[in-house]
Amino acid sequence: MARKFFKSKNGNIPVPLFFPDATRGVIKSLDTSDLEKTQTLGILVNTFHLWQELGGDVLDKFEGIGNFMDFKGGTISDSGGFQVMSVIKSGNVKGKVTDEGVIFHPTKKSKKILTPEKSIAFQIKLGTDMVVVLDDFTDPKSSYEEAKDSVMRTISWAKRSKAEFEKICKSKKLNDTERPYILGVVQGGKYQDLREYCTKELVKIGFDGLGYGGWPIDENGDFDFESAKTIAEGAPEDYFLYGLGVGKPEEIVALSKMGFNIFDCVLPTRDARHGRLYVYDAISIEEIDVYKLNFYSFYTPDKEKYFKDDSSVSTACDCVLCKRYSKAYLAHLFRIGDFTAGRLATIHNLRFYSLLMEKLQKSI
RNA sequence: GCUGAGGUGGCGGAGCGGUCAAACGCACGAGACUGUAAAUCUCGCGUCCGAAAGGGCUACUCAGGUUCGAAUCCUGACCUCAGCA
User: Fold this and answer.
1) What range(s) does the tRNA-guanine(15) transglycosylase-like domain occupy (predicted)?
2) Cis amide prior to A247 (ω within 30 degrees)
C-alpha cells in the first residue's frame, strides 16, 4: 500500500511533501521561526557540506541537526552524491571518484575521503528522519558505458551503505520503528535499461524508498519523465519515491501523479534571492488549481512600474509579505539590496510551495 | 567683480587630434537559475533599417574657427564650482 505519511521524530507529515534545501543547516536568509511561518513541514540538509563545515562533535553535543536548528519539523539528509558532481566533476574542487569513495582536496594540502560508510555514519549523527545512500552521479553527457559504470558503482555503494546502516542501527539498538528511513538512489542517465536494472538491484538490497538521481533535464530544458516512470514502475508499492532536486511546480505536479511523494529543490529559495517570486493564477487560496495549465506565473519585484504600487504581490497567499507589505515596499527593498528583500521573497516562495503540497495532498 | 578649475549619454565618471556611438560604475530593460561554493550570472541600453552580419543618421553646453580628420586644439558666449574681494 502506498505511503500516506512520512514519519518524523516530530510527528507524521502527509505526503506528497516538499522539503526545501537547508544545505548547510539553514534556509538561506531565514531563521527557523521564519521557516515555521511558511508552513514548511521539513527540510533537507547536506552531508558533504555539514561534514566539513560543522562536524560530528557539535552534532553529538546537540543530538542532531534538528535540535541544533531548533526546528520541529521533518528532516532528510542528502548523502553528498550530488556534490561529487557539482563540486568535483565540475573542476571547482580537485578530487576524484574511486570504487572506495570520493577523494577530494578542499585545500591544496588537505585530503578527505567520503565513503558510503562515512556518509551513512555522519547522517546518523545528523539525526535526520531519512538518510540517503551515497551514489555515483551519472553525468548527463555520459556514454552508455560510462553510465553503466556509475550504475554499478552506485549499486555497490548502496550495498555497503545498507550494511553500515544496519550495523549502526544494531549497535544503537534502534528497531524498525525507531530507525530513520533509508533511501536508495537510482542512476543510469537516459538509458532506461540501466535505470530499470539499477531500480531492481536496489530493491533487492532493500530500502524504504528510491530516489530519482542524476540530472533530469536535457539540453533543451525538457524534463526526463521517462526515467521517472521507469523507476516508479520498478519500485514496490510501499516505497517512497523521491524526486531528488525536483523541481519546478509543474514537474512536482506531474511526478506526484506518477507516485512520487518526496521532493526537494533549491528553486524557490534561490529564485527568491534572485528576484523571482511564484504567484498563483488565482484570487484566493481556495481558488488555486494546480492541475490547470499555467496555474502560476513569475513575479519580478524590482521593476520601475511597481515603485508606487500599493497592492500586494498575491491575494492567493497568506505569507507575511502578501498580508502586510506592498509591491512598492518590496521593490524598494530589492532596489537598495537589503537582506530583507531576499528574506521576504524566500518566505513567500516557500509558502507557495507549501500551498502547492497542501493542494496535492488533498487531491490524492 | 577678480583669480583658478570645469561643462561628455538618465546619473556619476574616463577619454584629451584619427582605432569613439564614447571605458568603467550606477540606474533601467530582458533572460537564466532544478539532490545550493549562485542575495548570482548572462545579455541589451543615442536613433533608424536589418533575423543577423552590417549599414545610415544625429551626438560630447552653444556659436564660430584651425585641420584631410575635433569630445579632444583655438576664439567668443552662456553656465557651474572653489578661493579672494
Assistant:
1) 7-364
2) yes
